[in-house]
Amino acid sequence: MEVGDLQLVNKFQVLNIADTVEAENKITNSSYQKFSPDSEKLYDEYSNISTLKKMKEFCAKNHIVAPRNLTFSALKYHVYKLYASQFTAIQKGRQMKRAEIKDEKYQPPFDYYIVIDLECTCWADNTKKMQEIIEFPAVLIDAKNKVIVDTFQEYVKPRIHPELSEFCINFTGISQETVDNAKSLHKVIVLFRKWLIKNELKDPRKYLIVTDGREDIPHFLNLGLLINNLPFPHELRCFADIKVLFRKWHNGSSKFLDMMDFYGLKFEGRHHCGLDDAKNIARLVMKMCSRRNKIVPTNKMIPAHFSDEGFKQV
């Protein structure tokens, strides 16, 4: 093999020449790939060519043998197919890098998101008994930096059905002893408000409550407050249901694990542990934020028993 041929082979090895189909199969969304300066320079030179004469000069310079009598568009496409592996990946990488820059400039509509996922009493026969809150967790997300900054978790003692079913214990992982020693819903909400104040979130305009579904706030919390003859806290009146937002943005199932799979996430922790569920919902919310989707209110409660009185003293 002559020196000129060897140089040509080496150039093709550096550029990792492949057909378009193979190149597409190798491109992933995982991260921005870096290429050699020669590859980037070659792509830039190719991209800036706008005449047939320049395209022929590019082919001669890079030892590309092309069919004769091709139009400018056909010749440029022929060259692109030769370098498809590198060119397609470079294009994808630059698009992702631009998207990351745009995300850095994106200002979310709220400073913080607070994910709540309540756990309640339940029974194996799915009877229509009144379900009461037994775990009240919350996860605080810094919306701009997309990080979890704090968590809250308290167990709640049920009033109407104080004894947990075997099904409920196995389903939630919460023991009878845990709820026997737990606080009342009144005291837990007071502690939740103190947690908000500790995190400098006294103003509800700074944050948005986020849930996976409509049951937590309008049903479970609302019912629990009525059972305990408590007013509805103004901090929890407005919330975003990620199922509603997901269906608005995408086609497909809005079941929680399906939504996680859509965004390439795997569940971490124990299913139906309220705090673990809330942490995973928070991961999903942060992933949605990174795609520049606006997490905004989808529901607003206007309960008859709305007031902020009654929670000032434990």
From TrEMBL:
It holds the Pfam family RNase_T. It comes from the Eukaryota. Residues 112-294 form the Exonuclease domain. Keywords: Exonuclease, Hydrolase, Nuclease. One of its GO terms (molecular function) is nucleic acid binding. The keyword Hydrolase applies. Coiled coil: none annotated. SUPFAM superfamilies: Ribonuclease H-like. This is Exonuclease domain-containing protein. It comes from Panagrolaimus davidi.
